[in-house]
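Suppose you are handed a protein chain with no further information: no name, no annotation, nothing but its sequence. What can you learn? This example shows the usual starting point.
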Amino acid sequence: MKQLEKRLRGGLVMMQWSERYDLHGHSTHSDGELSVPQLAQKIASEGVEVWALTDHDVISGWKEASGEAKQRGIRFIPGVEITCIPGLAAQKTILEKEGRDRSTTSWHLLAYFPTHDPNIDSQSITAFGKWLEPFAEGRIGRMKRMVEKVNALGMDIEFEAVMARSSGAVGRPHLAKEMIEKGYANSMQQVFDEWLGDGCPASVEKIKPTIAEAVNVIHAAGGICSLAHPIYYGIESNNLLSFIKSVGVDAVEAFHRSHPDKYRMELLNGAQKIGLKVTCGSDYHGPSYQARPGHMAVPSSYLPEQII
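A reasonable first move is to predict its three-dimensional structure. Written in structure tokens, the prediction is:
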């Protein structure tokens, strides 16, 4: 446990920091490289004690993850990362400051269900899963169109080969890996920079809910939510925090692996001022993306009460 002394509002406040939590990560049920058992073992080996599996737009890994976590003495929190329509237009000055020429075409909302046991049937969770289905299924049609686009650019990619790489929600990383294996690119970074990234020649938009719609559905199912990796959206932090507070988002993922320390503290302080909680996540997708999950220091008292 780490301690950090920070002067806030003229007083000395002691914040207790913890690396017990990793509330953002992906398995082969979406675009992760590791199966649920492999991911659970990796999570355990890195000392994580509270783990949320947040595959993209699917909840099919929850029951297996719950069992794997229990075997390893880890508290499991069912989660999902929902792809949404951007809540605000990106600010040009912020993008320029970050050295980017465009923003992402979606915002991601992390939904958590801390009191749900995946081994027990729940009408509210069943309804939530039904609501998610069109967004997951929309990924298949989107992938077909992306394969058509890369082939029109002179490649030879088979849709079936891309789908075979996914055991759940298919996504751009599955296509990227097929492109790399076929010799059309050397790295994931190259694929996204040149072909599949937002606004690139082979990118295709997907069906998405609004942030407000997703928030309402999550809350109706008994969950809580946090805006994922806000640094990607090109919005000044106070504007972003005010917006998500206004539409009912419960927290912001201030402590994401892509955030520099200054930005983490900026979000933490801003969230604290307006009554938002914070969350943390490695956003682990597998060894091709980053070395390890976990190791996300967060002041635990600022996490949502249902997660602590």
